Amino acid sequence: AERRLRGRVHRTPVLTCAGLERMAGRRLLFKCELFQRTGSFKIRGALNAVRSLVEESERTGGELPRAVVTHSSGNHGQALACAAQAERIPAYVVVPRTAPQCKQAAIRAYGATLVPCEPSDESRADTAARVVQETGGVMVHPNQEPAVIAGQGTIGLEVLEQAPEVNAVVVPVGGGGMVAGIAVAIKALRPDVKVFAAEPSNVDDCYQSKVRGELTPNLHPRDTIADAVKTSIGPNTWPIIRDLVDDVLTVSEEEIKRATRLVWERMKLLIEPTAGVGLAAVLSEKFQAVPRDVENVCIVLCGGNVDLRTLTWLTDLSGKAE
Question: Which residues form the Tryptophan synthase beta chain-like PALP domain (predicted)?
């Protein structure tokens, strides 16, 4: 994956913030994937998957796929559309009707065909399967495809190179592709580094799965401002999370809003709320139980695709961020 992505994705910076470090009581290192191509980490996995398909066709002398198909709340769809456009492969993206308009517009801008669906895991999967059958395309799952997981894992490789002093990495989790890929990369090279998944308590399937020791999908998920992590972890990411992720931390909607606003105000970085989930976890009471010798904590700011028209929640917060 690292070889395929070299020169095709940005090596995003790792930034610090003294004010947020004082609040957390630890040194914080922010891996800024909001500066990545297409505005999120998702291009890593999508590009690795598409390049894998291209390389396979070159190796066998076969034709390129007729199309690539996926379902996405926005960021993976945008990334796959970008990757497919570069290889001149048609892309079809199944998108929940509730997905942010800015993300839907970005998918269209990369030439992909949008197929609307209802905002549920079942509807997304069923609609994508129908599109695959109709188009003869290849399904590139947003978080369960091995090539996608491997691509996201390059974040972990970069973190270890850019911040070798790191003791822990905190990663937002939805379907689990990013945290699974990062965990594989980091535990292979630095098994001493802790890997934490962070998710909204409204969609806490990863936490429930970890507690119960078995895959426990969200059958009746509630709404969350972190729209990119509404999906449940799946059969390919769960075993990795079970075996390699040290703990799963859940945070409330208010904690996510506060953390997102803190990054905006203190770091001047326009992250999307999903990217605020990691900081919210580190600032939570639960993280205080983590031993103090875990002092250098890397938080993945996973994306910055914000629909500015929806930010009325900012006015709902009384006063300034502390």
Answer: 9-303
Q: Any idea what the CATH number is for the domain that residue 270 is in?
A: 3.40.50.1100
Query: Per the confidence metrics, is the pTM higher than 0.85?
Result: yes
Q: Number of structural domains, the chain?
A: 2
User: 113 and 187: one domain?
Assistant: no
Half-sphere exposure (Cβ direction) of 171: Cα atoms closer than 13 Å? 31
Cβ–Cβ < 8 Å for 34, 71: no
Cα Dmax for the chain:
63
Evaluate whether 221 touches 200 at the Cβ level (below 8 Å): no
Q: Which of 40, 52, 72, 73 is catalytic?
A: 73
Single out the catalytic residue among 31, 40, 42, 284.
Answer: 42
Question: Is 57 annotated in the active site?
Answer: no
Range of the domain at 182: 2-41+149-316
Q: Is 73 in the active site?
A: yes
pLDDT, tens digit, 9 for 90 and up, residues 236-246: 999 999 999 99
Helix (H/G/I), strand (E/B), else coil: 138: strand
Q: What is the pLDDT of residue 315?
A: 56
**pLDDT average, residue stretch 159-188:** 98
**What pairing do the DSSP bridges indicate for beta strands 27-32 and 14-15?**
antiparallel
278 is a domain residue: yes
Using DSSP's 3-state secondary structure scheme, residue 169 falls into strand
Helix (H, G, I), strand (E, B) or coil at 41: coil
Query: Are 220 and 90 part of one and the same domain?
Result: no
Tokens of 258: 């506060």
Collapsing DSSP to helix, strand or coil, 298 comes out as: strand
Say how far apart CA 261 and CA 320 lie, in whole Å.
9
How confident is the model over 289-301, as pLDDT tens digits?
A: 999 999 999 999 9
Last residue of a domain, one of 146, 163, 188: 146
